[in-house]
């Protein structure tokens, strides 16, 4: 036998070693593909979490329905020349001003075009169309006549009206328009400056930034009251999102955070007004939510970010986990490689969400009772399925990691079953974060940390106003005007979104 020949035992060992290397490589490739797919979906993809088999079932149901409909149509009697049913005409909103245009006959309203005889009016046909007048700018000139008393020669004059910016040229309505355009309609300041320039109004972007800062400053007392009311709640939803911030002198950006804290108990039948407030921080350190919620006692519904962990140590705040995050972890694995296990687990969670949809808006005690009766058995069976899966899966597999995300926090995940005020997920906070994520795609970054700190109170006012059914621009216009006019601090609560009432005369002025 030559020296290069391999003994059978050595060949088996080499084959086993190569197989181990291939298995390790495949695991790395699978992990990288999963991470790449997740990043792509986070950046470009849709947020839909419909499963493939569910779509196929819907397609089959649709085919059966269309077949039955076609069969029914074939058996139905044919009606000749059946007129088509006209589409219903939706009336235009009654609050819009009406501009009437009268269209008289070519010969006028007096003479008949055929015989020249006198015409008498029989009626009128009316047709309404929605029209638009482009944004029009105007200059408000404040005149303050001076009067002197002929007896004592005292000079009498009305006090100068309050201005949002000292020696500035913008009204309160202009400030509200600028901040609502940026933070509600996601229109960056440089685009606003371009639009204004096209209308012959040259305003520097730095000036618009100054107006934004002044609006944020005027809103601070109201936002402080919103936060105070929020900390009184029994349950708060929290989330955060990254915001790029220019680093001074470097030409680069750093990553700050905008934190959202929301209170919304409408799903449990509460009449307590919903609210949201925001905070900016230069980083994601856990000290920021710890300081923000220092005076809070109750339930905190949030994701599994470790920075929230310090809040739960002394028992003052109870953690409520988010099933949407757990479902998302499983769905990422299912999307990368669907299996009978991932399909079954997602179906089980879907059953819990179906129950939640049925009881949304019911009183808290009713929700708790139904959850105990219907949801708890499903959760118990789900936990058994998760434990069984962990015994069969490789410990380092991606699916096992996704499952352990839930089992490690099982007490927090099941807490909603025992209290009807709690939600199954943290979507309330995620909805509060969404406007920032949308705006970030347009304005890209904050000009500085000061810009991030200005954004927080403006978002607080806009989003709380929207949650209470108000139009943000009208609300901000009126509120900052009252605050600038020395509105008494004892009456701050009258300006909170759920207490505020518009004053048409003030807005018109």
Notes on the structure:
Residues 1-7, 43-48 and 50-70 have low confidence and may be disordered. 49% of the residues lie in helices and 9% in strands. The termini are far apart. A hairpin with a 6-residue loop joins strand 3 and strand 4. Helix 1 packs across helix 7 and helix 7 runs antiparallel to helix 10. The radius of gyration is 32 Å and the shape is extended. It has 509 residues and is an alpha/beta fold. It has a domain at 323-423. Strands 5-4-3-6-7 form a five-stranded mixed sheet. A two-stranded antiparallel ribbon has the order 1-2. It has 15 helices and seven strands.
Keywords:
five-stranded mixed beta sheet; 7 strands; disordered N terminus; 15 helices; alpha/beta; two-stranded antiparallel sheet; 509 residues
The largest beta-sheet arranges its strands as 5-4-3-6-7
Tally of separate helices: 15
* Order of helical and strand elements: HHEEHHHEEEHEEHHHHHHHHH
Residue stretches low in confidence (pLDDT < 50, at least 5 long) are: 1-7, 43-48, 50-70
Radius of gyration, CA atoms, in whole angstroms:
32 Å
């Amino acid at each position: 036998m030559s020296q290069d020949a391999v003994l059978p035992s050595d060949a088996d060992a080499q084959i086993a070693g190569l197989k181990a290397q291939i298995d390790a490589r495949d695991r790395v490739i699978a992990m990288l593909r999963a991470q790449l797919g997740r990043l792509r979906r986070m950046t470009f993809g849709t947020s839909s979490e419909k499963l493939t088999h569910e779509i196929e079932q819907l397609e089959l149901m649709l085919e059966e329905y269309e077949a039955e409909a076609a069969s029914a149509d074939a058996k139905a009697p044919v009606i000749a020349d059946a007129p088509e049913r006209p589409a219903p005409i939706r009336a235009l909103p009654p609050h819009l001003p009406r501009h009437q245009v009268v269209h008289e006959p070519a010969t006028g309203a007096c003479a008949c075009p055929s015989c020249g005889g006198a015409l008498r009016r029989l009626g009128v046909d009316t047709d309404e169309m929605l029209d638009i007048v482009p944004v029009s700018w105007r200059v408000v000139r404040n005149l303050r006549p001076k009067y002197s008393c002929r007896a004592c020669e005292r000079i009498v004059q009305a006090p100068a009206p309050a201005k949002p910016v000292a020696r500035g040229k913008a009204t309160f309505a202009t400030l509200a328009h600028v901040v609502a355009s940026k933070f509600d309609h996601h229109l960056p300041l440089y685009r606003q400056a371009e639009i204004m320039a096209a209308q012959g109004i040259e305003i520097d972007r730095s000036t618009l930034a100054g107006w934004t800062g002044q609006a944020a400053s005027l809103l601070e007392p109201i936002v402080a009251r919103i936060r105070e009311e929020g900390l009184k709640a029994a349950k708060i939803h929290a989330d955060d999102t990254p915001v790029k911030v220019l680093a001074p002198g470097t030409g680069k950006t750093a990553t700050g955070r905008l934190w959202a804290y929301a209170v919304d108990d409408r799903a449990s039948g509460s009449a307590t007004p919903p609210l949201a407030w925001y905070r900016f921080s230069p980083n994601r350190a856990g000290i920021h939510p710890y300081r923000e919620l220092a005076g809070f006692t109750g339930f905190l519904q949030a994701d599994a970010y470790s920075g929230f962990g310090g809040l739960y140590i002394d028992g003052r705040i109870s953690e409520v986990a988010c099933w949407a995050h757990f479902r998302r972890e499983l769905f990422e694995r299912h999307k990368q490689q669907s299996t009978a296990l991932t399909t079954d687990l997602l179906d089980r969670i879907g059953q819990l969400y179906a129950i939640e949809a049925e009881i949304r808006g019911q009183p808290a005690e009713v929700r708790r009772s139904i959850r105990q009766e219907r949801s708890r058995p499903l959760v118990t069976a789900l936990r058994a399925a998760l434990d069984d899966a962990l015994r069969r899966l490789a410990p380092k597999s991606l699916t096992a990691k996704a499952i352990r995300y839930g089992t490690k926090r099982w007490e927090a995940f099941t807490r909603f079953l025992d209290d009807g005020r709690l939600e199954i997920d943290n979507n309330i906070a995620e909805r509060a974060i969404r406007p920032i994520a949308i705006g970030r795609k347009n304005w890209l970054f904050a000009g500085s940390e000061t810009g991030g700190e200005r954004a927080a109170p403006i978002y607080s006012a806009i989003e709380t106003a929207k949650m209470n059914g108000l139009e943000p621009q009208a609300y901000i216009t009126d509120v900052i005007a009252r605050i600038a006019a020395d509105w008494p601090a004892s009456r701050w609560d009258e300006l909170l979104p759920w207490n505020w009432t518009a004053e048409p005369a003030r807005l018109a002025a």
